[in-house]
Amino acid sequence: MDHYLHALSQISVISLVAAALVMMLISTLWYSPLMFGKSWSRHTGIRPHDIRPAEVRRGYVIASLTTLLLSYLLGIISAHATSIFALIASVTLVWVFVMIEQINSFIWERAAFALVLIHALRSLTVLVAGALVHHFLGVL
Questions:
Q1: CB-count exposure of residue 109 (10 Å: 0-12, 13-18, 19+)
Q2: Rounded to the nearest 10 degrees, how much is the dihedral formed by the CA atoms of 120, 122, 125, 128?
Q3: Measured between alpha carbons, how far is 71 from 24 in angstroms, rounded to an integer?
Q4: Which pLDDT does position 9 carry in this prediction?
Q5: What is the pLDDT, as a whole number, of residue 6?
Q6: Which domain holds residue 129?
Q7: Tally of domains in the chain
Q8: Three-state DSSP class for 109?
Q9: Which of 11, 56, 77, 112 has the smallest number of CB atoms closer than 10 Å to its CB?
Q10: Half-sphere exposure of 28 (CA within 13 A, CB side)
Q11: Which stretches of the chain score pLDDT less than 50?
């Protein structure tokens, strides 16, 4: 048990913040008009000009905090991975749980399957990128 508690306190602040920034950048690009923003907007019915600036600011604050938490969790996974392959396998397993929720939204909320794919693939990309940042920057 002490081994796990020790690892929790040893996550590098630099890798924590760097991974969170990389994940936020990927998400921002992912939902931009350059990638899947137009498709996301079409499937959700939300147009960028319909969102008030206060909602955008609140959304970014909440997203930043949750991304920092996710980065911390990825740091824990990275600290315990014995190889890069074990890290990717662990992250993929986490992604499977995310996929289950995405599929539930498709089934019960009648979300468009394209929207489920957009979210699910972004989740996989963000998880892998964040884990790799932690892996390569290391744990202090």
A1: exposed
A2: -70
A3: 10
A4: 65
A5: 64
A6: 2-137
A7: 1
A8: coil
A9: 56
A10: 12
A11: none
